[in-house]
Amino acid sequence: MQPKSSQDRNRIYRFLYEVWADEFCRCMDGMDHDRRIMKDTLDETGQHFIAVDDSGRILGCVRVNFLDQCTFPPFLRHHMKLDELVTVFDKQRIGYNSHFAVAPDARGKTVASLLISALYRYCLNEDITIGICYCALQYVTFYYQLGYRPYTDNFRIDAGIRVPLVHCGRDRDYLRSIRSPLARLCPRQINDGGEAAQKMAARFPGFRVPAFSKTDVQHLWARLAYTTPADRNGHKHFLFDQLSEEEMKIVSTKVSEITFSEGEYVYRRGETEPSMGALVSGSLGVEAMMAGAPRIVNVIQPGEPFGEIRGLGAGRRTADIVALEKSTACLMPDNFLERVARVNPDLALKLASRLLNVIASRFADMAYATAGDDASTVKVERPLLYLQPDQNEIENRIESYHFDSLGDQENEFKRLIAQASIGEAVEFGVLDRIGLADGMTVLDLGAGPGVTSLLFARRLKSASVIGVEPEDLLRDKARALVESQGLAGRCRFLKGTGDKIPLDDDTADFSYARLLFQHLPNPLAVLGEMRRVTRKGGIVVVLDVDDHTNIVHPAPKDMAIFEKRIAAAQAAIGGDRHVGRKLYSYMHKAGLTNIGVEPIPISATAFGRETFFSIVYSFKRQVLERAGQFDERTEEFFNELQHLICNPRTFAMTTVFVSYGVVA
Questions:
Q1: Separation between Cα atoms, residue 72 and residue 133, nearest integer Å
Q2: Averaged pLDDT, 486-513
Q3: CATH H-level superfamily of 214-377
Q4: Which of helix, strand or coil describes residue 265?
Q5: 84 Cβ contact partners less than 8 Å away, ≥ 6 residues apart
Q6: Considering the entire predicted model, what is its pTM?
Q7: How do residues 518-558 score in pLDDT, each as one tens digit?
Q8: How far apart are CA 49 and CA 199, in angstroms?
């Protein structure tokens, strides 16, 4: 049914929030966390369809918008190629399908079929020529089977890669040839004979018939099972070796083919969406952090699976996978083995055994690749694209982590101290009000090169300061820094991380984490450790950012889009650019008492415009660079932003939040 009232629409918005925010923990446009609804600008002009049970409870929904009736966000216009589409088809003949969601207890039933059927009939009645949408990798096979086809480049959002798809709804011949269930709903008299598909092919080189139908099975599977690298002998990573023709036919009906461009990230660290695939052609690189720097540690070659650990449901992805050249793969849904088992249990068992062998072999290869100084003597079957980084490269990378111009020379560290000292009076004024006092034992968690520890020791003449930092190079710099100031007797630096602080219970009087929590995937665990090492009556304090408080006026074009890209890129590796607003609730969950929050405004006029830009935006630039998302347009954006902030007529500010609580 379609919603009949504003009340029905509000129920849809609440339903979408429950699915995307509560179940999938996604942060999407239009989410209102206070009202617990999800409503964006396309809802006002969209046509909704809902599936309900006998009691009226919503079990699923889907939405369609017509291009001539609404204004699309720039992000969608760019990635879905809307301007190019309207040069081929009339605006009123193009529909954009989105917000397709099904309640958890209704999945695998008829709800999806009801929604898709209603949407398809509606589009036919409205004389829609093509329908467009995008989907996650694990749903590609589902959409292909409905008759959707890829037409342009994949793109990434906060949760992972997305595939733009187009549905030529009046191409009845194609729908029948692939046995799409929608073919039965398409009247013979409206068959366009493939006219829309021909127009798409002429305008979009990426438009193609996906290789999953019966006419393509033998060709696809021959490439997958028998196209192998020169050193095939001895490899144990091939999933589909020596399958019979009948077994190939079973598996081929469960997968779909997709193409990745050179340099495109198939998966990113920290993502949770389940999917896996097998490479048909090209090569994929497994990128992991080695000695603090990203390195390609393995090359996936034709015939090998990829993404198998997360595809089998094991937590977050722990490595990036990038296309080293234009590559083609077949995608397997997250319940691939279960689907095969329904048809042939013995085949499913065979494939499961091979997948376990792949996982074990990959672990062995990773151990060889990261063997350290003795790695040159290890024989690795697949090549490492890069050697371990040298010591200078590690040092430069680590020391540029927080600020763009930090280096090895003494004058650079003096500049860092001066930069940190600009806000010293304001910051320590807040800490003093919270309860910081001389004579305390102070924990500086995530001490880095020791600047904050130095400030504690310099201001508190009889305090003892303990800095905890995991990076050896940074600890060495911190020790040298406090020694140069004659404060080594009251400052010591230990190797450790936030979730494993190397201190006994009840050690510190004042535990402080400055600009650390924005990088943490496990903030509550770290707060628990800070509480453990702080004595009863002691104070736990966290200072950090929330990018929603950033203001630049006038702002460069697409400022909001870039802020979202930065937040998504940092979230992919376990960080949170909006952690400031969450610190108060984290303190409560950690069991602290007398909890409070103090905001500290930071403006370009007060801190200096160049310094403000360096502190607030230099690290964000590095986030996009390390995520492989720094292109020419991004470079232009940061140059324009820096130029604006340095203009005396521009207002720029942000806010950091100091949250604190007492150990009971």
A1: 13
A2: 94
A3: Jelly Rolls (2.60.120.10)
A4: strand
A5: 203, 204
A6: 0.53
A7: 988 889 999 999 999 999 999 999 999 999 999 999 998 88
A8: 29
